[in-house]
Amino acid sequence: MISNPVIDAMMNRRSIRKYREEQPSDDVIETIVRTGQQAPFAMQMGSVLLSREIEHNVFRAPLLFTVCVDVYRMEKVMAKRGWKRNASDLYTLMFGIQDAAYMAENMVIAAESLGLGSCYIGAAPFMTKKIRELYELPDRILPLVMLTMGYPAEDPPVRPRYPIDSHLFEGKYTRFSDDTVSEAIEEMDSGYLRQDYYRRANYMIPLPEGMKEKFNLDSYSWTEHVSRKLGLWGGDPEDLLRNLELCGFNICP
Ligand SMILES: Cc1cc2nc3c(=O)[nH]c(=O)nc-3n(C[C@H](O)[C@H](O)[C@H](O)COP(=O)(O)O)c2cc1C
Fold first, then answer.
1. Residue 120 CB less than 6 A away from ligand 1
2. Which fold has domain 5-155?
3. Are 100 and 32 in contact (CB under 8 A)?
4. Contact 223, 186 (CB under 8 A)
5. pLDDT band for position 253 (50/70/90)?
6. Which atom belonging to ligand 1 lies closest to the Cα atom of 119?
């Protein structure tokens, strides 16, 4: 694989969940947000909210960004030109989510290059009421993801990924066989076990009553963890739909 400073920064990045208290300067913050803005966009529908209140921030991070899909600003701009939205909320969000996500990832890479660490926090779309109140958000802004940031106070190893063959398909998609699924699982699970990831975190997602636990901290790894997330959680679409509605979006009119 080719190496250069940008690629090295991307390949060596890992989520940081412990931070020094030192506040990054305004200059650093402006640089990170400007590089975020400079990400490719469909309609420039990303915005970031910032909290520097360490004591309230996730992981006591000096910076907590909440990256939002900002349709409010877009519609203000359109209104100025005398346009009203025809696009459905599903259509609009499909692009807005991408704008916000690419913005967030540019911020992560910029932060990395400046010696800061970061970690995404996925809870934002489930806590829209609190975020709307805290930042006095108007309708048509959807909190998409939070991003903790600051100077690292830990040095965790780089986390494994599936082998590239299971991510790159030239010409046509190659169906997974039993063997290739096993290889992908093995790469992830042995990697996380080598790092003692879940033992250090001392955490396994508990099974509901009636399901027998077959794992312990010697054997529980990433595949079981992610399978439990999608196998147990998030079954009720009403929850997210309600949160979207609270922000003024209706994707099933
Ligand atoms: C959308 C999204 C949501 C995430 N939510 C959380 C979270 O709530 N808590 C957390 O500790 N990490 C969270 N992460 C970080 C992932 O756990 C992390 O990126 C993944 O385990 C890979 O590890 P790495 O970033 O160190 O390579 C999230 C990442 C993404 C992209």
1. yes
2. NADH Oxidase (3.40.109)
3. no
4. no
5. confident
6. 15
